[in-house]
Amino acid sequence: MAQTAQLDSILNAFKDKAPEPVYTVITKSRTNFINSFNTHAAIQVGDTLPEFSLSDAVGTQRTSGELLSKGPLLITFYRGEWCPFCNIILTNFQKILPDIQAKGVTFVAISPELPNQSLSITEKHDLQFPVLSDVGNQFAKKLGILFQQPDSLRPIFDKFGHNLKERNGDDSFIVPVPATIHVGKDGKVKNTYINPDYTKRIEPQEVLKWLGELEN
Taking every annotated instance into account, which residue ranges of this chain make up the domain Thioredoxin (predicted)? Predict the structure, then answer.
């Protein structure tokens, strides 16, 4: 099944099965954020990627300098292991990982979840790329890709068992906007896909097109 069809399937199942009050609150939150998000304030093509030092799933610090010393970098931000849309994109990135690496590109995924949570998602999905923890969303903030979720969602998260305070180590209720960013070895941003609608994600083939069309 194509990725778009996979994402649509999740969204349609939610529409069909979610209680009306839950559906209304979540949909309103998503729509309001889509309408208010300032895409111009997010990192742009041509910008220099801010430096970062983030822990991987086993507690090793990975820095932007270290990763870029190996060549171009491909980064995807995801909201957390609790997000079914995010799990689909991570699984599909794993499928094209050999093609990404064949281009000499290093791929990493970043979320605000604590390292022990990142280890869980790595194990569950048999991911072969680094999953980094942007605790407190400090790096995502530098990129202008934050979503301050409204308090109206808190009871719903509690009902679903999504304890973000436990997962992320804080009670800010902030998640990153799902984004995929391609960075040249010079640290300059070459391509971005930043969509405030978290039910939409970049197609894997589009990412491979990025890597094929641009010189490293």
Answer: 43-216
Burial (CB count within 10 angstroms: exposed 0-12, middle 13-18, buried 19+), residue 179: buried
* Maximum Cα–Cα distance across the chain: 51
Contact 190, 210 (CB under 8 A): yes
Report how far residue 176's alpha carbon sits from residue 196's, in angstroms, rounded to the nearest whole number: 9
pLDDT at 124: 62
- Give helix 115-125 / helix 84-102 axis angle, nearest 10°: 70
Query: Looking up tokens 């308090």, which residue turns up?
Result: 151
CA distance 56 to 195: 25
- Beta strand spans in 79-162 (E): 106-111, 131-133, 146-148
Tell me the pLDDT of the chain averaged across its residues.
94
Ordered domains of the chain (ranges, CATH) = 3-211 (3.40.30.10)
Q: Is the pLDDT of residue 85 over 70?
A: yes
Contact 29, 184 (CB under 8 A): no
| 9-43: pLDDT as tens digits | 999 999 999 999 999 999 999 999 999 999 999 99
The whole-number pLDDT of residue 213 equals 67
Helices (H) and strands (E) in the chain, counts: 9, 9
CA 179/CA 192 separation, integer angstroms: 7
Within 13 Å of residue 145, how many CA atoms lie on the same side as its CB? 27
Per-residue confidence (pLDDT) for residue 125, from 0 to 100: 65
